[in-house]
C-alpha cells in the first residue's frame, strides 16, 4: 500500500520523477512529426512539383543538344498558335491545358539549358533537406540582372572618360579666366609669348599664314584626349610595345655595343636622376638644361655631388633670408594653434 501510494504521488523512493524522461523524449518526436516532409520538388521553384527532366522527356545525363531537341519537338505540339484540338495523342488536351503545358515546357527548358541553373536544380534534387538554400539560389539568379560584365565595364570606362573630359576642360577654363583677370599673370604670359615669338606669328604671309583658329589651337595647351582613361586603355598595347622596343634598343646600344650617349639620352638620364616627370623637365629653359649637360649630371656620382651642393645652398639661403627669419620667429613665439586675442 505504501509503495502504491508513493507511485501515485508521482515519485519513486529516490525522490525523482517517474514520467518526466518519457515526456522529454516525446517533445522532439512531436516536433519532427509536425514539420513537413522534406521534398526536392517545391511549389514556385523551377518546374514546381514536376521534374524538369520528366517534363521534357530526357534523363539527367542528357546533353544540351538533346534537351534543345526535345524542347523544339514539344513546343511545336503545345504552342498556342500551332495547337489543334483532336490531333492524334492530343484528344484530352484543351487550349487552356495546352497553354499551361507549353509554359511548363518553356520553364523546364530555361532551367536546363543554362549550366549554372541546371547545376543548382540538380543540387536541389540531390539535397531536398536544404529548403531555404534552394529558395536563395533560385531567387538570386532570378533577380540578378542578366547583363554582360564586359558591357558594364565598357559603360563604366566611358562614363569615367566623359567625366574626366568635362572636369579637365572646366578646370582649364577657370584657370584661364582667373589668369586673364589678374594683371600680374597676364603681363608674365605676354612676356613669355613675346620671348617665344608667338605674338609675331600673326604677321606671317603667303602660304605660311595661318588663321586665328589655327594659331589659337596651337598656342593653347588644352587637356589632351589621349590622357582620357578610355584612350589610355585602347592605346595600352601600343605603349607597352613601344616601351619594350625602346628598352631592348637601349640595352643593345649602350650595354652591348657600348655606344656613347647623345644629348637626348643624357637629358633622359638627368631627368631620371632628378625624378622629374617629362612635363616638369620640359618646363625648364634651355639654359638650365645646358647647365645640366655641362656639369655631366647624367653620371650618378656627379649628380649626387650636385644635389648635396644644392641642399647646402638652400640651407644657407633659408638661414639668411629675412622672410624665413620672420617665419621662424613667428613659429617660436606664436606658431599655429596658439590661442591669441590679437586682431588680424
UniProtKB/TrEMBL annotation:
Entry's localization field: Membrane
Signal peptide: 1-40
Primary site of residence: membrane
Membrane topology: Multi-pass membrane protein
Stored CDD domains: DnaJ
Biological processes per GO annotation: protein folding
Protein name: DnaJ homolog subfamily C member 25
Organism: Sphaeramia orbicularis (orbiculate cardinalfish)
Lineage: Eukaryota, Metazoa, Chordata, Craniata, Vertebrata
Gene field: LOC115415814
